[in-house]
Structures are given as structure tokens and as C-alpha cells.
Amino acid sequence: MDSLSSSQTTDSASTGEKNGQNCLFVTLGCAKNEVDTDRMRALLLDAGYGEAEDVDGCDVVIINTCSFLASATSESIDTTLDLADEVKSGVRSKPIIMCGCVPSRYGDDLGEQLPEVSAFVKADEEDGIVSVVDGVLGVSGREEQDESGAMLRTIEGTSAFVKISEGCDRFCAFCAIPYIRGRYHSRPEEEILSEVRSLMEGGVREVVLIGQDTGIWGSDLGDGRTLAYLLRRVAEVVRPYHGWIRVLYLQPEGMTEDLIATIRDVDEVLPYIDIPIQHCNERVLKSMGRSGSTQQLRELFARLREQIPGMVLRTTGLVGFPGETEEEFEELLDFFKEEEFDYMSVFPYSREDGTKAATMDGQVDEDVKMERAQRLLDVAEELGFSATAKHVGERVKVIIDGVDETDDGVELIGHTWFQAPDCDGAVHIESGEAAVGDVVTVDLVDSFCYELVGEIVDGE
Question: Residue 133: pLDDT above 60?
């Protein structure tokens, strides 16, 4: 069943089972949701619950939902209903708990609409998941937990996303995140460092710092701490483990001289910069509630390339925003071609209830939006495939993420510094010996699409 594919549930078999009751975790949406699910998993495992790999082996299903777009909300609802059909042998024989963005966005209206769900947990209530599961399963007599000593995360894989902030203050006209996740607030430094330390001790080789707006970390703390400062502090933690640090979701305004210098000069911080610009046309950006222009963005990327030679750039383009003309779209298309980004995500505008853009005049026809998105995606892939191919001939360090058995033997799969986990490509190594978590030296010998073929360098 598609809703219960291995990409959405955990790969591990039932574990723990300290109290004989197991949870099935299903995660939809972005990396930030994956982090939230992992935090809930850690709390529940620490409380004595086990983890199931499928519906048959679980006592309760915990689905962490996404509501960033209408399509994501629909997928969350459909997946929940599919789960309800699968577990139903009587009324709520295996209860379902819905967490995350959908309950945060739609609140009290959900109970009547989804009687299949036993409990709803908003994003800012997820640290109380143990008491919710206890209540649903009728577990009583548990002493109140001291969360300061609880597990922060579980360790799965060689890379781990770490949230450094929550919420957003930008209120872009197309985005519902501030209404779902609330106003921006930085996560405390010591909490971040403690989590990173725990992950590195558990075998993680790369931490990926994420948030709705990572570049402004510390701006609400009032003591002058910045993202550049945080990166240097995280580097101190990962340095003994020879770890990597990657930062995603930087906004153009957050690229200060101090941050640029930190990315350039601190060895542990990868020169991989992700800046989701959405558009380049000044009028469209202003209508979106964003700042900037084609000229300002050109100057920014020129400055980054000058100050961080050899860096990799990722961005995002949003087409079909209300009022976008064909000429403005062509300007964005030309901008992408001229800047030659290494990686680009492309989205057609989605009309989201409750956002400013949903009530704007000039809504673009769906067929036009999809046609523009496809044209921009074609450019993104052409440039991305070319950028990937340019790395052929390089010698790089590769983190081994997995070992696959194929008809031709064993294939090692990993990623290198210019490939963000879960969103870029991978390095495929068809011969050699290594285990998951090993860092090996590899010669890149071929490429296909966003993928690279590598050969392990003996003796290194």
C-alpha cells in the first residue's frame, strides 16, 4: 500500500517493547517534520514503548502531517484514511494519532471531520506525545518525566537534520507557515549543541541545520549571537569526529559578511549554500511580500562566488504567482540560465486558504502555471545534470549511507560534500568494501542525471 511505503515509515523492525506496546510512525512532508517525528520517537522509546515496522505489529499509529500546500494537506488526510481502513477490524481497534501541521492549521474543526482519529497533537504540543499515547492506550500510573534527561533523538543513518529554529516572521503572501508554526523563535544554543553532540556520539557524520529561516538565528535572543557564531560553536562539537556541517534554507538578506567568512573559513562547514529566492523580478517579489530584484540577486551570487570559490548553490523558483506576466516569467527563466545554479527546485504557485495571495486578483490559469513550471524545470535539470557532470574527475570524501545487494553484486551508495542528503544526488560505488558510516576517498569517474559513479581509492 503506497501510504505505508518504506520511505514514509521507519526501516527498523520492532524495537524496545519494554511495555509490550509498539508505535508505528508515519511521516509526511519536509525534513523539519522528520526531525519532529524523531523527537517524538525518542520520547516514546525512552518511556518504554517499542517501535513497529507495519500496522500488524503496532498498537497505535502516529502520523506526522504536512499542510504547507493544499496537495500536502490532501495527502495527509488521504494517508490517514488509508491507515484507518487498514487497521479497522472494529471501532478504533488500533488508534491513530494525528500530529503536526494539519492539526496546527485546522485545529478544533478536525474532530468532527475525522472521527477515525483518536487524538490530535499540534506541532507545539508534540513534546507531550507520551501522555497522549498513554491516554489513548489507557496506560496509567506513569510518573511525570523529567524531559531534561530524556533522549533527544534516535540515531538512524549517517546524516541527521537538526532544527535550529521554529516558526517564521516573514509572512510571504503565498505561505501559510507562520499561521501553522507561529512566530519565529530561535532554539536555545545549548539545546542545539547537546543534540549535535549526542548525534555525533551515536555515529552521525553530518549534521544538516534547518529551520524556516536559518540565517536569522539569534536575532530574537537580544545578545548579538548570530548564525555565524552558532556555526562556529557547532564546529567545535563535530571537529573531534571529523564531521560535516551543512546549512539549508538561508534567505538572501541573511548572507552577512560574517556568515560568508564562516562558511569559507571553518573547515567543518560545507561550502554548500541553499538560498530559496522564489523569483527575481522586483515587482513579483514585492507582491509576494519579499524583497530584492534581479540586479540585487545577481550581485549577491557574484559576491558569494568571489568570496567562496568552488561553492555549490541551490535555489528554488516559484512560478505562476498571481499577476505574474509572461515577460516576468521569462525574466526568471533567463535568470536561472545565466546564474547556472547547481541544484534548483521548481514549484507552481498553490492557492492556499488563509494566505494573502489567495485573495489577490490576477490568479494565473492552472494550465499556464504547469506549462511555466515545466519549462523552468527543464532548464533546472539541464543545468543540474551539467553541474553534476563537471565533478567527474575529482577526488572527494564520500560518506557511505547504504549498501545495496544487486544482481551484479554489492553496491555502496553515499554522498559527498556537494550533495545534500535526501534532495540532491548520490555517489554509486560498484566495487570495494565499506560499511555504513565510513568515510572513504573516491575518484568520481562518471555521471548520469544527478547521480555520480565513483571508485574507492585504495590506501586512503
Answer: yes
